[in-house]
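Because discrete structure vocabularies remain unfamiliar, we first show an illustrative case, written as a sequence plus integers encoding its fold.
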Amino acid sequence: MPEETGAPTSSWMEQREARVLPDDLVQAFTRLAKGDFTVRLQRNFQRDTDDAIAFFVNVIAEQLARLVAERERVHEDLSAGVALLSENFLALAAGDFSVRASTTGRRDALDTLARMFNVMAVEVGTVFADHEKQRALLEATLESMVDGVVLLSAKGIIQRANGAMGSLLGHDARELVGQPIESVLAETESAFAASLRDLVTMTPFKNRDTLFRPARGEPVRMAVNGSPHRGADGSLLGIVLVARDDRELKELETQLQVADRLATMGTVAAGVAHEINNPLAYVMSNLQFVTEELATLAATGTLTESRIADVTKALAASREGARRVKQIVGDLRTFSRAESATPARLDVNTLMDSALALIQNELRHHARLSKEYGTVPAVLANEGRLVQVFLNLIQNAAQAIPVGSAEQHRIRIVTGTDPTGMASVELHDTGCGIPAEQLPHIFDLFFTTKTVGVGTGLGLSICHRIVESVGGRIEVKSTVGAGSMFRILLPPAPPESSIDVSSAAPVAGPQARALRVLVIDDEREICESIQRVLKDHQVDTATSAALALELTRDIAYDVVLCDLLMPTMTGMELHALLAKDKPALAERMIFMTGGPFGHGVREFLARVTNPRIDKPFDAEELLPMLAVEGARRE
């Protein structure tokens, strides 16, 4: 021990009474505060206050010295242990999954860290081994596929291609790595390549008809599925494309869909005829009554108030009947659009009503119908094909119930949104049900549970393919003797792009100026009826596009209302001529259509921005469109 300092010159008590600490005590406290724990005070061993203070100061100095020494030892041990753990971590990071940290058994912090490291090393090694197995399995799967698979970077650079893709394009798959996707696509697909990132970001796409450019020979058309490859944080890491040369399969599926539509059309036609004949019957009788009353008026010059009321009532009923016929024809037109491959944003509830209108006559003989429509997101699909799905499922539900028992049976349709955000359509029936052993096969081609001559085995298979083609699925539950439930789930359509309404032309109000209008239709009666509707405007009519072209050379028209398909010169051809000589007038054309049209017409309507109105239409539909187009002239 260090030497004790000399005895104080005066007693502690005297110093305290004088309220002054002795110098040796001040020096001792100062040295302790500076970390000098060797300081000691001399004791007199007389058990007085001076001796007690010296004792406690010496004990405090010894304990502080011991604690500091122990802390330094622990720090050295901890530093050495952390250094060893760091080396183990580096080995693990380098891929040595057999590395293990040494444990001490002392259950201190270092021992706990070592044990945790060893557990982690075992887990990481196991995961890595499983990952390697999965990678090898994935590699073998990709190379065994008959479909071509390409993995692109987020910028569209090929990072990986399987052997099938190389064979389809006439390349060694390794040669494709590092090339932009444009290098294997036809020039006509440049817009698709440029927008590929945006397409998969919005929603994965399926069966896109895409033209590829092989190393040799003519371009090859393949159906392509695309989906995003995302990181754990949701960011886009790349794009996966799967391509299939399915020309023969596509042709077969088209033939099957047409066959199924023809089979469905037989049932639909009977119902449509019934639904149209009813309103036509009272429309014709009412019109005959009005004609006779007008003849009476012409002969006598008078018509009583009660007879005027009867005429007004008959005309109102006739108009309502015509509206019903228009609705039925519109529903039938929707079904006929199945040949168009162009998808559109569709309202599921509206399409279901269209399907029900076409098959209502058959339904009423089988069961009572109830509808429980909820909020359903818009879907992106072909409206005719989706109506075909609804028609097939409704028809199946009706045919599962015997005719003549409508009061005892029910068909219930429920729409809404499922928990994942998909559009949901459920069809419940109280029919005979489907045996459990048959459920796995009901979507197989040519499989049917109906009697020979009633079922073709196409309907459910076609429905399944149509729904899957837009990224959806069909689920079914059934109990023999109790009925069945078919649920259709469809992905929601991507959000519509924002529309700048600031530049939209206003709808003219009651005080809008009279417009100079040219009406073109090869049916003179249509021209005259529109002329009567537009009585507040100055209207010229033409029964051919050639005559209309002559009129436009001398008269400045505000709006041209033109039939789309006419003999000799179509509305499309007239639009092309006006686009050269009078482009502003060509932009103010409104096209009238009377029914389904071919591929060339669909392409034209998709290319131009002109509005379209379907026949038959009334003043409430036509006048707002006329006002908007006329405002372009202002």
User: Anything to note?
Assistant: Residues 89 and 117 are 8 Å apart (CA to CA). The longest strand covers residues 220-230.
